[in-house]
Amino acid sequence: MSTDWEKIEKSKREERVRLAGLPIGEKFRILDQMRGRAAAIKAQKKPIFKKDQAQREKG
Amino acid sequence: MDIKEVVNAFNEMEAAGLFARYAIGGAVGALFYLEPTDTFDVDIFISLSPVPGRLLVDISPVTDYLIKKGGIREKEHVRIFGWPVQILAASEGLLEEALNEALDKDIEGTFTRVFSAEHLAAIALKTGRAKDKARLLQFLEADVLDRKKFHDIIDRHGLKEVWKKFENQFLKDRP
């Protein structure tokens, strides 16, 4: 099986163009959802390195 | 939508004369031209004059106003209506020009002002972090820039060499 990278890139580009063309209110609603998801992930995130853990505990 | 509350606060401050003019820049500014990309804060640029005898401008009247409206100071931001807001003085040539030439926009009935796509792209070129380069590529790919206006800006602000470097790094051999 081969991967058609050009086709994938084309469809991604089309989606980006579609999203860019949305009304600004709609784009802000999408951004709000993205920010909500990012905040939820950040709240659950376990540190990857011990140094991160130490920094988190230090505040 | 909470961002409308944020820009309304800046509309009120501008009307009250706390600063002469404000405009949205950064990733939230880019949202007016591009697809949504994740960002946690909103950068708002204001024009302030330095207090006589002092070199730095004082943004504390603005932060104080936001805190009175329920904002909370968080390091370099004020969090208000769910948004960490970074208030930045447009204190150098490119930013001053971007603020002076910012465009009037409407968020579902709420007035605001946003840097032009060309100024946002030039600022991204100047700041040059990985995320800024990615944003500049987004602007180019989306084909939303007036190329003449963009090149006039980078010429005016001494960014020609930086652009050449960026071009060599990212735009050579592209179809």
What's this, in brief?
The complex is a heterodimer of chains A (59) and B (175). Chain A is mainly alpha-helical and 59 residues long.
Question: How many domain regions of chain B?
Answer: 2
Low-confidence stretches of chain A: none
Distance between the termini of chain A: 49 Å
Give the biggest sheet of chain B: 5 strands, mixed
The value of Rg of chain B in angstroms is: 17 Å
Unreliable spans of chain B are none
The assigned structural class of chain B equals alpha+beta
Individual helix count of chain B: 8
How many separate domains of chain A?
1
Give the SSE order of chain A as H and E letters. Answer: HHH
Structure description:
The complex is a heterodimer of chains A (59) and B (175). Chain A has 59 residues and is mainly alpha-helical. Chain A has one domain (5-58). Helices cover 78% and strands 0% of the residues of chain A. The termini of chain A are far apart. Chain B is an alpha+beta fold and 175 residues long. Chain B folds into 2 domains: 2-115; 119-171, no CATH class. In chain B, the strands form 2 sheets. A 5-stranded mixed beta sheet of chain B has the order 1-2-5-4-3. The longest helix of chain B has 14 residues, at 2-15. Chain B starts with a helix and ends with a helix. The A-B interface holds A 13, 16-17, 19-20, 23-25, 27-32, 34-35, 38 and B 1-3, 28, 31-36, 38-40, 105-108, 138, 141-142, 144.
